[in-house]
């Protein structure tokens, strides 16, 4: 099973097959509007602008599981992304990434790329260690703006923890995507 085998809910409530993105390199990100990392939207949009023509799709998935930092409706989230960051990549319907109600896509992403979240994640490691100690050492998504890189066949290649900025991913994308 690969990422292309999943369906997700769009912001308007319809279902979309991730098979529609077959042949594209994907960067799948759980996002939030009221997080200290929310400015990463700007970097994600810059990556999208730079690499979309070379086959990159960024897929944003709002999640309210971390400090209630995505309280809005799907409509409000779309408006926020457009107005504040000129986001043009798809931002889907709000979902859960951990726990018994986690979206199957994120269960798969987590199992394929459990992550390497440790003290090197600085302030965020300390925050998660204090607020969600049960998450340390598990495959759970630790916070907003965790990113998963998926190849053109739907295979999960890598997980980037929230403190990895979009700019730090640029070199990986440049090496993975076909030349312009």
TrEMBL record:
This is Glutathione peroxidase. It holds the Pfam family GSHPx. Keywords: Oxidoreductase, Peroxidase. It comes from Actinocorallia aurantiaca. Belongs to the glutathione peroxidase family. InterPro entries: Glutathione_peroxidase, GPX_AS, GPX_CS, Thioredoxin-like_sf. The keyword Oxidoreductase applies. One of its GO terms (molecular function) is peroxidase activity. PANTHER family: GLUTATHIONE PEROXIDASE. The lineage of its organism: Bacteria, Bacillati, Actinomycetota, Actinomycetes, Streptosporangiales.
